[in-house]
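User: Hi! I have a protein structure encoded as tokens and I'd like to know what sequence might fold into it. I'm fairly new to this, so please keep things simple.
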């Protein structure tokens, strides 16, 4: 065993023994951040195979014309080289007597305790602690406590700032100035090659012996892209030396540093560094822990009374990551598919945001949700560029996005094709088009749940209308007199170049309908706003088009057995025995036997496709239709995307299959905090983590926004006796407490009445209600 999830009651995700095979997993799942920056939890000492990453949100750079823009791996401040009595500290040598690495989700601190016998037989105790401040966005703090267990010792410590980092070989930075201030503050500068973003780093060591500050003089070393200091300290037997390393990073992309000359940015960063150094590890940690409580744990905690303590740990783990991955400070930035936890997906934003992550923030921190949707609005120029490049009109959102005006940034080539030996072409950037409707849906969902009219006036209407304009231009005249959407990739990426993907067509129709409704409503009720938008988008000419096209858009209908064809050919494709892949240990194993072309021609799905549509457009489909499609498609779905399980969990619960729902929840919860050692190497799965929250609150909690109305139809799994959570609805904070027999809703804000239904019955809550189940 390496991973240890048994300390759930203490909020601990841990590794209880050192196994280099788990380096990547722990680096990812124990990464630390605050949405501005995020540091992977690579061990302080070097280990072969490590992936030491530090990302600052939104600092995208394109290394080369043949590559897409990506989040660059900035200089490293975390590595420390220790020599204990002349012997290099490495857990790959000597003997590890005891080992424990723990992430405390409540405070955001990680602590690694090691008792190590060096190859020469001398024993030492080392405790490495680290956190990234949640509210001081630029700050990373490390501490190492070294105690000799066999007599006096001499310790050599080397550390600093290392700009030799890269992304899979691509070096995004040019080297800048290096300098030591006042004999202790090291400064390193680097600038991204294409986007020209300056990064200014500082790091400062300080020392204490048994708590008494020591004035240690370091020897300064500068090398190619490196600045570091070397210290030599004698530690008497029985004493503990504490090494503290405080680091900060500022960039010229920071909103409050825009337009600053590099020298001014350096001055600002140095002043920030000195200010921080006046405070110590403990005070800064306590402050950050308070921020965690205020923002999350005391504000929107989710409490699960389950016979499996892991369930509680999983939902807290999900919330922890949602806050460290989300650039809440800047609406020009969005969330990467791997958050900020690894180089996977290059820091790019996908539909994962709107479909999976946005709902968490809509219901838990609406101001963050607004920022995420404002990002889409600010990205409209890129969406226009993409539409016109494809000879369409309006706003066509990129499948993958990075900086707001980048437009499409999906890489063109991907993994090896096992048949041809060539790289596989990634078609999503060209033809995975449902993202445009997903973005519109996200804006609408935000508005329906929050009632934020100001957002709608500034951004929301325009997003829905401009995307509606795209779809009207996208529809293709068929020989049957209907309008089709041909040659797309739907959510199920195992099917390429399909016609009339049901999800895409239904969502496009939804988008056009909403555009038409809002256009008419604005004309009647908000003439000024209407005329401004009409001038921008040509609404007067669009309205009749929308109306006419809505009547003719082809929406795949149910067969006799109530199954809806996922696309025009899916149901005619050959079925193969999927047992082997259904029972796989690692996802994507089908690619070891077939290439994409072959998979496209089989009835096998990567992830939920039609089933997501049932969640988004819930009222359009009967329970029987949902059940029939579940039974047809689930056995053919490999859940090879981590996005798949939570959708299936929620629907299983809706269909009354609570055991299955709980099983799916447990599998979804274990994607990152699970036993599998390799799943998270390239980073955590952002959408899947938010999916855990959705499974709990939308699934077992039964919360749904349906046509603008709140519905709560809970159904707890047998393993749970209670569930307790908070949601915001139109500015009212609701505290929801659930058992198998009762649902309690308290309106904590209480300034307005919230209307909702529970199992079809209407209720109003301004104070508190209790509904027997
Ligand atoms: C999934 C997509 C998802 C992407 C990023 C892919 O494997 O098929 O639906 O958007 O990963 O998470």
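Assistant: Happy to help. Inverse folding works backwards from shape to sequence: for each of the 773 positions I chose a residue that suits the local structure. Here it is:
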């Amino acid at each position: 065993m390496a991973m240890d999830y048994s300390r759930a009651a203490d909020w601990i995700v841990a590794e209880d023994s050192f196994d280099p095979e788990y380096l990547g997993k722990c680096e990812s799942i124990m990464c630390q951040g605050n949405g501005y920056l995020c540091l992977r939890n690579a061990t302080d000492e070097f280990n072969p195979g490590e992936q030491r990453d530090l990302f600052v949100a939104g600092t995208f750079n394109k290394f080369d014309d043949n590559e897409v823009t990506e989040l660059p791996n900035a200089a490293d401040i975390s590595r420390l080289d220790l020599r204990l009595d002349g012997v290099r500290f490495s857990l790959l040598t000597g003997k590890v007597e005891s080992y424990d690495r723990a992430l405390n989700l409540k405070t955001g601190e990680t602590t690694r305790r090691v008792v190590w016998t060096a190859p020469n037989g001398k024993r030492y105790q080392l405790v490495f602690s680290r956190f990234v401040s949640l509210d001081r966005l630029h700050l990373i703090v490390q501490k190492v406590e070294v105690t000799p267990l066999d007599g006096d010792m001499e310790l050599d410590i080397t550390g600093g700032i290392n700009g030799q980092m890269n992304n899979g070989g691509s070096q995004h930075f040019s080297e800048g100035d290096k300098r030591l201030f006042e004999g202790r503050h090291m400064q390193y500068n680097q600038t991204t090659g294409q986007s020209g973003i300056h990064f200014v780093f500082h790091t400062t060591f300080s020392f204490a012996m048994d708590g008494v500050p020591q004035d240690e003089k370091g020897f300064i070393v500068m090398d190619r892209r490196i600045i570091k200091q070397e210290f030599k300290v004698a530690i008497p037997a029985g004493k503990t030396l504490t090494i503290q390393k405080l680091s900060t990073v500022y960039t010229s992309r920071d909103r409050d540093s825009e337009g600053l000359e590099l020298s001014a940015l350096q001055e600002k960063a140095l002043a920030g560094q000195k200010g921080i150094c006046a405070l110590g590890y403990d005070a800064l940690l306590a402050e950050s822990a308070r921020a965690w409580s205020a923002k999350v744990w005391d504000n929107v905690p989710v409490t699960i009374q389950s016979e499996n303590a892991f369930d509680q740990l999983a939902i807290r783990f999900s919330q922890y990551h949602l806050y460290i991955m989300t650039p809440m400070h800047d609406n020009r930035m969005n969330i990467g598919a791997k958050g900020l936890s690894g180089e996977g997906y290059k820091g790019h934003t996908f539909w994962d945001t709107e479909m999976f992550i946005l709902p968490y923030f809509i219901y838990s921190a609406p101001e963050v949700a607004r920022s995420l949707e404002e990002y889409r609005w600010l990205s409209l120029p890129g969406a226009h560029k993409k539409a016109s490049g494809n000879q369409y009109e309006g706003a066509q959102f990129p499948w993958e996005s990075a900086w707001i005006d980048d437009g499409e940034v999906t890489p063109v080539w991907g993994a090896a094709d096992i048949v041809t030996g060539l790289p596989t072409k990634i078609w999503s950037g060209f033809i995975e088009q449902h993202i445009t409707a997903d973005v519109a849906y996200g804006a609408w969902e935000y508005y329906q749940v929050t009632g934020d009219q100001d957002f709608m006036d500034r951004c929301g209407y325009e997003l829905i209308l401009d995307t509606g304009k795209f779809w009207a231009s996208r529809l293709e005249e068929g020989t049957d007199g209907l309008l089709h959407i041909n040659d797309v990739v739907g959510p199920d990426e195992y099917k390429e170049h399909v016609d009339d993907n049901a999800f895409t067509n239904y969502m496009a129709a939804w988008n056009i309908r909403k555009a038409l409704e809002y256009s008419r409503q604005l004309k009647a009720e908000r003439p000024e706003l209407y005329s401004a938008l009409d001038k921008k988008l040509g609404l007067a000419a669009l309205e009749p088009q929308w109306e006419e096209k809505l009547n003719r858009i082809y929406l795949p209908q149910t067969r006799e057995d109530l199954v809806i064809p996922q696309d025009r050919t899916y149901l005619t494709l050959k079925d193969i025995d999927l047992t082997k892949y259904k029972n796989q240990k690692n996802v994507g194993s089908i690619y070891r036997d077939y290439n994409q072309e072959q998979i496209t021609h089989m009835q096998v799905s990567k992830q939920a496709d039609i089933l997501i549509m049932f969640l988004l457009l819930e009222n359009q489909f009967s329970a029987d239709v949902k059940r029939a499609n579940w039974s047809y498609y689930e056995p053919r779905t490999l859940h090879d995307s981590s996005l798949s399980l939570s959708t299936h969990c929620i629907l299983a619960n809706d269909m009354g299959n609570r055991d299955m729902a709980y099983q799916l929840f447990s599998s979804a919860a274990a994607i990152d905090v699970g036993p599998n050692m390799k799943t998270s190497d390239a980073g955590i799965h952002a959408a899947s983590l938010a999916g855990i929250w959705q499974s709990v609150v939308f699934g077992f909690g039964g919360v749904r926004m349906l046509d603008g109305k709140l519905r709560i139809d809970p159904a707890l799994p047998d393993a749970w006796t209670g569930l307790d959570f908070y949601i915001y609805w139109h500015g009212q904070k609701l505290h929801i407490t659930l058992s198998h027999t009762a649902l309690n809703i308290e309106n904590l804000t209480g300034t307005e009445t919230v209307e909702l239904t529970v199992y079809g019955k209407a209720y109003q809550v301004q104070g508190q209600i209790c509904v027997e189940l």
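A useful reference point when you look it over: The chain has a mean pLDDT of 97. Feel free to ask if any position seems puzzling.
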